[in-house]
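Bench log. Compound arrived from synthesis this morning; before running ITC I wanted a structural hypothesis for how manganese (II) ion sits in the protein. Inputs:
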Amino acid sequence: LVSRDVKEEDTVISFPGTNATIGGRDLAIVAGPCSIESREQAFAVAEQIAAAGAQFFRGGAYKPRTSPYMFQGLGEQALIIMAEVRDRFGLRIVTEAMDTENLDLVADYADVIQIGARNMQNYTLLKAVGRKRQPVLLKRGMSATLDELLMAAEYIMSEGNYQVILCERGVRTFIDHTRNTLDLSIVPAVHRLSHLPILVDPSHGTGKRNKVVPLARAAVAVGADGLMVEVHDQPDKALSDGAQSIYPEQFVQMMDEITQIAPVV
Ligand code: PEP
Ligand code: MN
């Protein structure tokens, strides 16, 4: 089902009530903080990214953190805040479902259900989102091959949900000057083999604020269908991923630069 041999034309996912699409000609821009920390924080970021042209707001409610003692997310409270963001700013909401237990609740609030890198091969979860109606953003596992990524998408589609968006977010390599190695070569490879759209996440892909905008430009140049970028109004105080979160002013600059490469509607 993921294959271009089965469906030749690109999958374009649309969002009723907006002119936002994922796939096709225009870039889809997903931006927002790593975690929702408060209504004030979420609104401050959402206002600025919406003004700069983003169509989607991201924010973690349930966070897959390396240490159980790190901030785990605000849970349903964060989902409620994101629903307010949607109403106030007209942004569609992208947020992660970490397990089948919280999937129904996340699906009640999300416009796009995110499956995180650590869950790319959680086949029970993939089948469960396959039975949902919303689009699913599937992040590449940190050591997943292209075939493994496409087969994970196949799990979702095999249950009847064809609205799958892939996302490259960097893979583990020996290098240590960035958090992960962003594999931009997967973008044309996906486009050749599959009709599904693919976004690039240069935030988790590099882990470093000053590398996010250059890699965002590169992702667009290589043909990505859009970007997922972490933006925070006070990155130094962020409860997660502050070091890779860009300032709203940098986001504005990024939008200006990428629209010189490809259109954003
Ligand atoms: C995220 O997008 O917040 C996230 C946790 O990303 P990943 O699953 O790619 O690490
Ligand atoms: Mn993050």
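What the model suggests: The mean pLDDT is 97. Residues 13-258 form a domain with the TIM Barrel fold (CATH 3.20.20.70).
ITC booked for Thursday regardless.
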